DNA sequence: CTTGAATAGTTCGAAAATTGAAGTATATGG
DNA sequence: CCATATACTTCAATTTTCGAACTATTCAAG
């Protein structure tokens, strides 16, 4: 094992600093969802936020790096509470499109507003910095979605 | 409710773009932990990574925005597997310091290396961009840890 | 067409993660 | 010394996630 003095002393690489920041933000965001008026669970909030337009469940699964059965469970819950409906995808009748109801849109707007608000307060970044951070975040996300399946040999 | 054409059309604010990127990275990272040689669960990986130096459990709880009993469970698991030991904090004998063993350090180094590697591959950012992203991430994290308790009236 | 293989999503039971309330031990401030 | 607060633990219950087996639909040959 090579000398690991750097890590032991806590001098962290930029990559790890970035990751730590990402964790902090993620956890903070999750915490916020607990504080909002809500019968919504975290996965339900995530799905709602992702549904800016009708999407197939498989797309959501890929997007959330989750598994089909998890998506089913979350969609079931949201559907039962009236936030969305399932519609067959006319282009492939095996697939469902998840479509927000009016109530779903309203709640999504509220969540998005709260999350944006939180980001502003929690991050402490000014407008330019936020824009720059967003730019990089988009790039990262595109890259991740593009590469899809993890490099790992999958367990 | 104000016109929400913007969100309906999917034109997302920088804040939401940032959040989406953060989610994507977080989830990708989690996925990576599944692919590594490991008897380690996700929370165990998180804790290990945070333990670049001995830390009190309460500090970890605050850091991971988690609850004491969760930290206890994770620390128990890591201790049983020989990754860390508990030592009384000499400054406050109610508190424990979690101290990595040699095995713990080795595994932590491996995890940190893997995570850094993943960040490089997944993000697609070049060195300067990574440095800039890391700078902002640090700023965000500092800000979050500083503000501590969420603004919300706590549920 | 008809068949066989792949894909989209569902079901369901098990495993993993998280929580909150009650408890133990130590600290701190009159 | 006492009362209260803090640091962590225990434990039972809840929530979340997963994987394997299953149904329905599509696609590609033949």
Mean pLDDT of chain A: 88
Biggest beta-sheet profile of chain A? 3 strands, antiparallel
Oligomer, anyone?
homodimer
Largest interface by residue count? A-B, 75 and 74 residues
Low-confidence stretches of chain A: 1-8, 149-155
Distance between the termini of chain A: 24 Å
Number of strands of chain A: 3
Count of DSSP-assigned helices of chain A: 7
**Order of SSEs of chain A, N→C?**
HHHEHHEEHH
Strand order of the largest sheet of chain A: 1-3-2
Helical percent range of chain A?
55-70%
What is the structural class of chain A? mainly alpha
Shape of chain A: globular
Description:
Two copies of one chain form a homodimer. In chain A, helix 3 crosses helix 5. The first copy, chain A, has helices spanning 5-8, 14-35, 42-50, 57-63, 68-80, 102-123, 127-147; strands spanning 55-56, 84-89, 92-100. Chain A is globular and about 50 Å long. In chain A, 35% of the residues are buried. With 155 residues, chain A is mostly helical. At the A-B interface, helix 2, helix 6 and helix 7 of A face helix 2, helix 6 and helix 7 of B. Chain A binds a DNA duplex (30 and 30 nucleotides) through residues 41-43, 56-58, 61, 66-74, 76, 89, 92-96.
Short description:
2 copies of one chain form a homodimer. The first copy, chain A, has 155 residues and is mostly helical. Helix content of chain A is 63%, strand content 11%.
Per-chain topology:
Two copies of one chain form a homodimer.
Chain A: H1 5-8, H2 14-35, H3 42-50, E1 55-56, H4 57-63, H5 68-80, E2 84-89, E3 92-100, H6 102-123, H7 127-147
Antiparallel strand pairs in A: 1-3, 2-3
Helix pairs in contact in A: 2-6, 3-5, 4-5
The structure holds a DNA duplex (30 and 30 nucleotides).
């Amino acid at each position: 094992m090579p000398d690991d003095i750097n890590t032991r002393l806590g001098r962290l690489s930029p990559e790890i600093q970035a990751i730590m920041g990402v964790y902090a933000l993620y956890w903070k965001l999750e915490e916020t969802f607990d504080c909002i008026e809500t019968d919504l669970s975290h996965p339900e909030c995530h799905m709602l936020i992702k549904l800016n337009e009708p999407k197939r469940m498989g797309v959501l699964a890929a997007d959330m790096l989750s598994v089909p059965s998890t998506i089913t469970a979350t969609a079931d819950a949201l559907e039962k509470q009236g936030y969305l409906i399932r519609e067959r995808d006319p282009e492939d009748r095996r697939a469902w499109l998840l479509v927000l109801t009016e109530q779903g849109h309203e709640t999504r707007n509220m969540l998005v507003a709260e999350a944006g608000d939180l980001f502003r307060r929690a991050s402490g970044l000014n407008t330019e910095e936020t824009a720059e951070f967003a730019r990089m975040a988009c790039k990262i996300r595109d890259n991740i979605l593009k590469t899809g399946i993890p490099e790992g040999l999958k367990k």
